């Protein structure tokens, strides 16, 4: 594909790149949702020099070398699929901490390809961009997964029905669904969180899990908050991973006691999420979760956010 | 609960008890659908003699003793939950062969409790009746499962999110969805079909399976026939069970080549189902499946049916 740049006007774009919650209890490796109030910003501008340059990173100690940066790698994958006369400069303003479990690398990977796509006049759909952004995830974790980049790009809930070939279904969020996410300030590497997994599961647990995935998807389409709550269980991964997260059981129990529909590990942790109906309950849960970590003298960050049905947003122009 | 029979008028009811397809490839032990053109008939009438009597069985060699008959056992379970001055006589006209894999025992179990419930003035919802009918399934297979009795009673597609506590979600079928079901005339006992299962599965296959369950549910809600088709895969149970079914691979391949959205084992087999969009394709698949078994000199029965969104139907009065 060749594009004539003389017909495009935009030379620079500033975007908001949202944090995301992957897995969502029963939906290990297939489900994710997009947040509205937590995320990074990126500025991407056209350059006469071909190729991709990361020109600035604020808020995180991440490599500026294009080939070592998830945004750079994703952008390069995209430029392999389309011919341009231009190059692109990328500035990254990180708010999402690396290793937090709310899609830090995904926000940068998805943001880079989203921004470049806008500057190119949208040659690719948001779904098509997922494939490029997955290359950033591959750099970050060794695994080109879409659990976080899909909700970051598409918004709402996303189901990755299949990774190969990639088949992503976007599901709109019920309008009153809120997430509370607490991030205890310890770093848990995706690779460590992966190493505790067992490679086999009992058929019985697997059946329970796919029953719950079905229930969660049905609950989202029918906006049945109770069904969403009843489906938010994970007897396969959570028991293995939760031991790596300080205070997990107490935080989860506290969330449920304060009205959460469900609670579990965000991505591969250490962040813990709770879903609830309405902002009031989500705020109440945030307060109660904070009290638990305050009591433990464990530093944390906490976010309360509506599910973001749009995904990455243009801040300017 | 006590009911006054003098206020009810109906003394006898004739019902159609549909065949059902459980599992539906990815949805092992959780999904099922209800058929419209294949099923039994039952006549249930009030009697001055308390208790349940099976007074007639036509079309099958099944026990008349109440405690040994799935309809009898289901009805007894129901009468334990409600006090009545009357008893009930049950006549069963079987068309669905035992051991066919399209819910023969479920049709009788569900029919018995449905019919009695109607004669009692509907003290129970259809969902509540599922619990009683599951007792018939327990007698038939040793396992009180709801995969067939749920769709027989509720119609459409049903998801058994959880068996304990029972949590069933009914999903309306997309209007053009048809099933073709071929029953090779060999008997395959549920217990034999269960014995080939492995008690553990790989995490990778389990993830694939719950991704497909999610995709199938999403496809049903969005009436996306292609997504339904892409989701109809089973890499866990089908490879183990299909070897028990003569000609399975060829029948499935034939169905797909003739336009089926997907194809797999119905229940625990030996019946093989295919889903398709529109009756024309379903008929074409039936013809092609028939040719395969004709060529193999294997006797078979074949059904083409729209998905029955209503479940058990009253024939008269």
UniProtKB/TrEMBL annotation, chains A, B:
GO MF: ATP binding; homoserine kinase activity
Record keyword Kinase present: yes
Subcellular location field: Cytoplasm
Catalytic activity: L-homoserine + ATP = O-phospho-L-homoserine + ADP + H(+)
Main subcellular localisation: cytoplasm
A single GO BP: threonine biosynthetic process
Enzyme Commission number(s) of this protein: 2.7.1.39
Keywords of this entry: Amino-acid biosynthesis, ATP-binding, Cytoplasm, Kinase, Nucleotide-binding, Threonine biosynthesis, Transferase
PANTHER family from the UniProt entry: HOMOSERINE KINASE (PTHR20861:SF1), HOMOSERINE/4-DIPHOSPHOCYTIDYL-2-C-METHYL-D-ERYTHRITOL KINASE (PTHR20861)
Protein name: Homoserine kinase
Species this protein is from: Flavobacterium sinopsychrotolerans
Lineage: Bacteria, Pseudomonadati, Bacteroidota, Flavobacteriia, Flavobacteriales
